[in-house]
Design a protein that fits this description.
The protein is an alpha/beta fold. The protein has a single domain, classed as Beta-carbonic Anhydrase, Chain A. The chain is built from 9 helices and 6 strands, in the order H-H-E-H-E-H-E-H-H-H-H-H-E-E-E. The chain has a 6-stranded mixed beta sheet. A hairpin with a 6-residue loop joins strand 4 and strand 5. Helix 7 packs across helix 8. The longest helix has 21 residues. It is globular and about 55 Å long. The protein starts with a helix and ends in a 16-residue tail after the last strand. Bound molecules: zinc ion (ZN). Zinc ion binds next to helix 5. The site of zinc ion has 7 residues, from helix 5.
């Protein structure tokens, strides 16, 4: 805890002091570029890996970056609704990561025998286990986990479409969604390319330009 307290002091004296104008402007409200859905894992630091500033990302974190079914109550769905309906975010990113303990648990349910709350939460992603069993039976160990991490991101992208306020905006071209995987050991970010049907390393032009602003009537 002592380290956190020292960190808070250092933040005020250094980072905050350098960016007073930014923080002053943020006091008037937030207008984030993206809703960023990722895992609670301490090794995934959204602002670092996207080079973002305070105010840029509206972040939802949970075990294994899951998007629950719209009929289930919960903080993730509430945050989705707020980000899209109120803040009008133009982008949603679902970002998984390598070595994800949550995804490993999805593949190995007995590992959750003493974690009933984790088991209940991850039961929403049982489809990922089925997909891995059907398509990746030839893989083992880390390769199998990595395939599951990618498939989990794709399942969550599909789950996003189950929210009418998201699917409608997607259909109108007002919202873009992307699936990412962050590789902890190398710092690389991979993004799903629907054309090639695989995750490709992100390049400067991986992301298409934002949806066109509505023209004059
Ligand atoms: Zn994780």
């Amino acid at each position: 805890m002592q380290r956190l307290v020292a960190g808070a002091h250092a933040f005020r004296a250094q980072y905050f002091a350098k960016k007073r104008d930014l923080f002053r402007s943020l006091e008037r409200g937030q207008r984030p570029d993206a809703l960023f859905i990722t895992c609670s894992d301490a090794r995934v630091v959204p602002h670092l890996i996207t080079g973002s500033e305070p105010g840029d990302l509206f972040i939802v974190r949970n075990v294994a970056n899951i998007v629950p079914h719209p009929t289930l109550p919960g903080g993730t769905a509430a945050a989705l609704e707020y980000a899209v309906e109120v803040l009008g975010v133009p982008n949603i990113v679902v970002c998984g990561h390598t070595d994800c303990g949550g995804v490993r648990a999805i593949l190995e349910p007995p590992s959750m025998d003493r974690l009933p709350l984790v088991r209940r939460w991850l039961s929403q992603a049982e489809r990922v286990r089925e997909i891995v069993r059907e398509r990746y039976a030839h893989l083992e160990g880390d390769e199998r986990i990595s395939a599951a991490v990618e498939e989990n991101v794709l399942v969550q992208l599909e789950n996003l479409r189950a929210f009418p306020f998201i699917s409608e905006r997607l259909d109108r071209g007002e919202l873009r969604i992307a699936g990412w995987v962050y590789r902890i050991a190398s710092g690389q970010v991979f993004t799903y390319d629907p054309t090639h049907e695989q995750f490709l390393e992100m390049t400067a032009d991986s992301v298409p330009p934002p949806p066109a602003a509505p023209g004059p009537p």
